[in-house]
Amino acid sequence: MISLETIPEKLGTTEPWVDKGGVHWLTQDATKVRELAKAMNEIHARFITITAYQLPKDEGFRLEYHWDLDGRLLGFSMQLAGKSIESIFDLTEAADWIEREIHEEYGIDFTGREYEPLLLRQGETPGVNLRDVVAASDAVAASSKEKI
Amino acid sequence: MSYKIPMGPYHPGLEEPYKLDMICEGETVLDAKLHIGFNFRGIEHLAETRNHIQVIALMERVCGICSFIHTLTLCRAMEGVAGVTAPPRAQYIRVIMAELERLHSHVLWAGIAAKLMGFKTMFMACFEIREKIMDILAAISGNRVNYSMNRIGGVNRDITDPQSILKMVEALEGEMARTVIPIFTTSRTARSRCAGIGVLTKEQAVSLGVVGPVARASGLPQDLRKDAPYAAYAELDFDVPVQPDGDVRARLLVRALEIMESCKILRQALAKLPPGEFNTGEEKFNFITGTSTARVEAPRGEVMYSVSWKEGSRNPARVHVRTPTYVVMPAIRWMVKGARLADTPLIQASIDPCYSCTDR
Q1: Residues 6 or more apart from A28 whose CB is under 8 A from it?
Q2: SS (H, E, C) A68-135
Q3: Stretch among A32-41, A111-120, B96-105 having the lowest mean pLDDT
Q4: To which H or E segment does residue B189 belong?
Q5: How far apart are CA B211 and CA B199, in angstroms?
Q6: Who among A20, A46, A118 is closest to B290 (CB)?
Q7: Taking the CB of residue B280, how many other CB atoms lie within 10 A of it?
Q8: Orientation angle between helical segments B248-272 and B88-117, nearest 10 degrees
C-alpha cells in the first residue's frame, strides 16, 4: 500500500495532509491540476469526481477533486482565480462527464478540450451559470408578485 | 456504407429514457454516442432549499431502486458535519437494509436481463422472488420502496423480531439457490446470449474509473464494503466475487454470486444484531461549517455524497451526488463497439443502468 506521505513531494508541496470529514485533504494550486492528475495516474489512484462550489459574493469558485487510493479518499481543494482551469480529460478519461457537467451548470471553462453537445440539459448554449439563471428568474417572479 | 441507428430516448429495450446513437456498418456497430439528461430534475440545487430533515426525504427520491443507499450516504455525510455517530444496533440495521436492497436490485436486474435474452419464464420467476424481498423490506420499514429508514444518528425503525426476518431470508435464499443462480451460472441459453459480448477489458475499466459489479466483472477487486468498511461491514465475513472476462456473462455471474454473498451477510447481521438504541434520539444538531464526504457501496457500485454546511444555517450550502451509473455509463460506448446490433439492448442493460440516478 502506497504511503500518503510520499504524495505531497510528487506534487512539489511540503504541506501535510489534513484529515477532515472522511477525506485526506491537500490544498493544491489550481494551475497545477494537470501535474496532480499525472501524479495520481502514476500511483494508480482511481478518479472519483469533481465537486464545484460557488463562493459567496464575487469570490469565484472552488473545485474539489477526489481520487480513491486503496480505499482511502483523497481530496484536493482548488480556488479558481477566474472561471477557467485546465482540463484533465486527456490524462484522466473518467473526468470527461463531470467536466462537461460543471461547464454546463456553473459556466466554468475546462481549457484544452472540446465540448460535445449538452450533457444534462437540452436547448440553450453550454457554459452558462445555472445559478445566475435561477436567481434572475426568481427576481422576475418576485417583482411581478409585488406588482400584483 | 455506414448508417446511424438511434436507440431511445424511449425504446422497449430501455427501462428509463436515454439515447444511444449507433453508427453501424451492416449489423456491426462501429461507434456510439450517448445522450443523457432526460431525467434532469436539478435535485442538487433543490437540496439547498431544504432543511436537514426535508433533504433526507428529497434525496431518497434520487433513485427508486437504491433509495435506502442514497439516504444512508447522505446521513453518513451529515453525521460527519454534525459530529454524530450512529449506535451499533443502527449500524447493523443499516447493513440489513442495504443488503436487502442489493438483493432487490440484483434480482430486478436479473429479471430484466432474462427478458432481453428472450427468457421470459425466468423474468417471471425473478419478479416473483423480488416481490418476496419487497415483502421483507415492507415488514421492516412499512414501505416497499422509499423506506424512510435513515435519519441523522441512526435509523427510524427497529427490527424487533430478527428471527422472523431471518426465516424469510432463509426461505428466499433457498428459492434463489434453486432457480435464479443455477440458470444464470450454468444455463446454455444464458451462456450463448452473454459470453464474449459487450467486453470491457481491465485496462479500459481502469481508464474509465468504473465501479461496482461492472468493475468486478472486468477483474478489478474493488468494493467499499471491504476497502473502506462502513456501518457494521468490518465485523461481517463475506467474499467479493470477481470475474476476469469483462463480458456480459461475467457481469451476470458477479451479480449472481453477490446475491448469495448478500444472503450470507444478512444471516450474520440478523444473528449478531446487538442490543441497545437504534438512534441517538437527538432532534437538533449543531452543524459545523465545512464539508463532509461519505461513500457507500450501492448495488451498482460506489455512491459518493459531499455535503457542505454553514454554521447556524437550516439548509445545506451544497449537496453533490456522484452515482455509480454516472461513471459506468460512458463504458457502454466501448462495450458496443464491434458488437452486433441485436446484442446492444442486452449490452447496455448489463451495466444495470439507472438514468434517474445519473441525471439527478
Answers
A1: A11, A13, A36, A65, A76, A77, A78
A2: EECCEEEEEEEECCCCEEECCCCCCHHHHHHHHHHHHHHCCEEECCCCCCCCCCCCCCCCCCHHHHHH
A3: A111-120
A4: helix B188-194
A5: 15
A6: A20
A7: 18
A8: 150
- Measured between alpha carbons, how far is A113 from A96 in angstroms, rounded to an integer? 10
Contacts of B37 in chain A (CB under 8 A): 118-122
- Which residue has 453550454 as its cell numbers? A126
**Furthest C-alpha separation in chain B:** 69
The pLDDT value given to residue A120? 62
Task: State ipTM.
Answer: 0.86
Hey, which residues does B320 pair with through a beta bridge?
B306
C-alpha cell, B70: 442514497
Residue among B308, B327, B333, B334 with most chain A CBs within 10 A, to mutate: B327
Determine the Cα–Cα distance for residues B19 and B17; give it in Å rounded to an integer: 7
Helix (H), strand (E) counts: chain B: 16, 8
**Minimal C-alpha gap between A125 and chain B (Å):** 15
- Does the pTM surpass 0.90? The reply is no
Q: What is residue A6's DSSP assignment?
A: G
Whether the Cβ atoms of residue A62 and residue A108 lie closer than 8 Å to each other: no
Extract the C-alpha cell encoding B128. Answer: 416473483
Residue A12 — left, alpha, or beta (φ > 0 → left; ψ -120 to 50 → alpha)?
Answer: left
User: For residue range A101-125, what is the model confidence (pLDDT) as tens digits?
Assistant: 898 888 888 988 877 766 666 666 6
Cα angle at B136 between B130 and B140, to 5 degrees?
145
- Cα-Cα-Cα-Cα dihedral sign, residues B201, B207, B208, B213: positive
- Single-letter amino acid, residue B24: C
Element holding B5 (H helix, E strand): strand B2-7
Distance from CA of A48 to the nearest CA of B (A): 7
Chain A residues whose C-beta is within 8 A of a chain B C-beta are 20-23, 44, 46-49, 51-53, 64, 66, 68, 70-73, 75, 92-94, 96-98, 116-122, 130-131, 134
